[in-house]
Specification:
It comes from Pseudotamlana carrageenivorans. Belongs to the major facilitator superfamily. Proton-dependent oligopeptide transporter (POT/PTR) (TC 2.A.17) family. This protein is an all-alpha fold and 502 residues long. The chain has helices at 13-41, 59-75, 77-107, 113-140, 148-178, 180-200, 223-228, 234-253, 256-278, 282-305, 311-319, 335-358, 365-393, 398-426, 432-455, 457-460, 462-482, 484-490; strands at 7-8, 11-12, 320-321, 323-324, 327-328, 396-397. A hairpin with a 2-residue loop joins strand 1 (7-8) and strand 2 (11-12). Helix 2 runs antiparallel to helix 15 and helix 4 (113-140) packs across helix 15. It is globular. The mean pLDDT is 86. The structure holds glutamine.
Amino acid sequence: IKPHQKELFGQPIGLYILFLTEMWERFSYYGMRAILVLYMVASTELGADARGVGLGWTSKEALALYGWYTMLVYIIAIPGGMIADKLIGQKKAVLYGAIILCLGHGVLVLTDIWAFYTGLGLVILGVGLLKPNISTMVGGLYQQGDIRRDKGFSIFYIGINLGSLLATLIVGVVVANYGWHAGFGLAGIVMVLGLINYLGGQKYLVQVGNHTVVENPKDEVSYGKLYGQLFNSPKHLIITAVLVVASFIGWYFMNWGYGLLFLFLTAIAALLMMIYRELDSQIYKDRFIVLLLSFIMVIIFWGAFEQAGGLMNIYTDTKTNRMIGGWQVPTIMFQSLNAGFIILFATAVAGFWAKRKLKGKEASSLFKMALGIIIMGFGFLFMVFAVMEFEKSGTSSMIWLVLAYLFHTLGELCLSPVALSFITKLAPAKYASLMMGVYFASSGLGNKVAGIIGESASDFGEYTIFAGILVFTVVVGGLFILILKPLKRLTHGAEDNEHIIE
Ligand code: GLN
């Protein structure tokens, strides 16, 4: 822990400030997300209930916007990280993000369609500034080699899920009684709490997230210079041309949305290549490569995991026997299982790894992440069982879903908080926030992949999709474990000899 940081339960107090800020932010994010699709498809005519009128879109239109929204909200983390690294530091970026989020959720209280789009746009910008940078700040609370960092991230992750659990439990009830816009408004009020909490806790965050003025011009982050290099040699020009063609293909064969997405992704790919070239030691170069490879795991993980809100949600609704006694468990409650399991098991999983590490047994982040993919993948075995039962008897038991979500959560705990921590260990300091942004963008791409896979269930059937994900994830996780040794070598001992640093 950095010098002069006050502690509580063996962790810097700053961690709890960030925990609470992120808890409220995630409440507003997941609360709004929970009602977004429902609001878009709700009728434009006033019904008998208190919810008020919706937008009257088809479910296809609503899901399309939802897919782009849940992707953009994380992809925008890349510019969010860049702004922090280059201009204002993480602490201010989180502050501005929180303010923009309050505005965004506030605008959504209005019923006009312009307010709807403006609100969503502001939420995307706000999350982009806040989410990656608050995560990097957690890492900034610890010195290199401090074994408490992983545990700190697990605690932080509990905050995330506490927010999401409360949101899924409360926002639906508010909407049912007071209408859609009260639900959006609640998300806004909660975000104001997050902002107040962050401002009030500044004295515990004095040493983290500051934008440092560099003394050596070599240490200055200059994206312009990096991009300039794309044109400074024939080899680079060829690369640039390939990138432009890739974006064009996206636009030509799909639509302008994909074209823009490809353009953005290829621009980022080019930036990462140029950063790699510029890194001045082989150690940093190797670590950079490991980080990028680990992002492949991240895309695959979320691509499978995020079936939760889509295909598995629909499966729960239409094919699962949800009766307990005379009561039917509402579909939406299954969405709370993940967050609930995280809160129950996060410290146990983190404690398990810490104990193994202290005993000197294999517990590298890369191993945990690969294992996380496999464990999560096994969750789909229960979905396969569910489909088999449904095909035999016309309905399937809830227990399969509970088991699937349990395995998904255990897998998530092996991968997600671990990956956050891993990035703060490996990323070159001056690009720390950018790399966190790339991590979230990878999970955003995973969200999009999840949507595409989920949609294809109408062509291939659920059995094929669930079984396919099971096999694919277990094989990929297994492959990563096979190449673990060389990968670990490339980290150059970034995780060796971790111990408690006072
Ligand atoms: N549930 C996590 C969160 O909201 C997952 C985010 C992600 O990486 N996509 O922070």
